[in-house]
Specification:
Elements lengths: L1 H33 L5 H8 L3 H10 L7 H8 L7
Helix pairs in contact: 1-2, 2-3
Length: 82
């Protein structure tokens, strides 16, 4: 019985830690998106979800969609025109 119980406790702890890590990663990704540091696609990739799931996650958290082009411009400095 002790062995079964120990296995159950270990499994439960691992599941709780994994869930906490997922929640923290989601929080981090949403914050980075909110600050326009990553795109919707990058956030979806980081969380291992689809583009549509990421879009729904933003809606669920009342985060408006950013203009993807403006995010890309901020990340890559433009070349000087001649």
């Amino acid at each position: 019985m002790c062995n079964s119980y120990a296995r159950f406790v270990g499994c439960t702890i691992r599941q709780l830690v994994a869930e906490g890590l997922r929640a923290k990663m989601q929080e981090t990704v949403l914050e980075q998106y909110r600050k326009s540091r990553i795109t919707l696609r990058q956030g979806a990739e980081m969380l291992g979800i689809t583009y549509l799931e990421m879009n729904q996650l933003l809606r669920d958290n009342h985060i408006p969609l950013a203009r993807e082009a403006s995010v890309a411009r901020r990340r890559k400095p433009s070349k000087a025109r001649r």
